Amino acid sequence: MGASYRDQADASPVSAEQVIAEARKAFFVMFGGLALVWVLQLVNYADHYALSRDYGVRSGDVGTLPDILVAPLLHWSWAHIESNSGPLFVFGFLAAYRGVARFLGLSLLVGVTSGLAVWFFERGDVDTVGASGLIFGYFSYVVVRGLFDRHLIDTLIGVVMAASFAYLLTVAVPGTPGVSWLGHLGGLIGGLAGAWVFRDRRSRADTGAGSRQGPGPTTPGNVQVRSDHPRADLHKELGDLGLL
């Protein structure tokens, strides 16, 4: 009998080259996504921000519910998109470099939680747009992902990001004028949930058992390397650190 796709995916080797390939894909995905956001801004600006008015999320308006997936791509001004572009690219890349497919699922989850937070709880007749919810979702995901996946390098990245950008949390609390703190809070919650939903479910116990099978030693993450390979020790050390 053939193995299932999931079994094959879990058993497939994960090499440093594959990690680099995923990081390269993540870079182009974020570059393309950011380019799309800027193209939409040009169209939006040329039409006096009609797209933001037509596709913004409005609290309690059932007709705007589908717009929670579009609103993160739109902005209200050049200053708005400029302030979002840098963090969106950095946090998005860090969230995507372990796997683009997982990142797309995360983006959908964060977009929904951020948009629903605005739709349910925002007050007033306001059209809410902007990538801030995604940024906060990617931020919280990057901060805690390493704890769920038990990857040392991701844990260290999370610590650095948390220490460097903790000030972002100040605009996820009530009282910040002109800012949809509810969208930010919804994004944060979505990122935390995403870190658990999209966690690496391969346990260390399973991969440790796998290391006792086959002709040569394997590193955690099911990376099998022959014992006579000149870099066998390096692969094992990287695997033990959670880098592979």
Automatic annotation (TrEMBL):
One of its GO terms (biological process) is proteolysis. Its EC number is 3.4.21.105. It is an enzyme of class 3 (hydrolase). One of its GO terms (molecular function) is peptidase activity. Gene3D superfamilies: Rhomboid-like (1.20.1540.10). The keyword Transmembrane applies. Residues 68-199 form the Peptidase S54 rhomboid domain. InterPro entries: Peptidase_S54_rhomboid_dom (IPR022764), Rhomboid-like_sf (IPR035952). It is a multi-pass membrane protein. The chain crosses the membrane at residues 26-46, 103-122, 128-148, 155-173, 179-198. It comes from the Bacteria. Residues 205-229 are annotated as: Disordered. It holds the Pfam family Rhomboid. Keywords: Hydrolase, Membrane, Protease, Transmembrane, Transmembrane helix. It is found in: Membrane. PANTHER family: PEPTIDASE S54 RHOMBOID DOMAIN-CONTAINING PROTEIN, RHOMBOID-RELATED PROTEIN. This is Rhomboid family intramembrane serine protease. The lineage of its organism: Bacteria, Bacillati, Actinomycetota, Actinomycetes, Kitasatosporales.
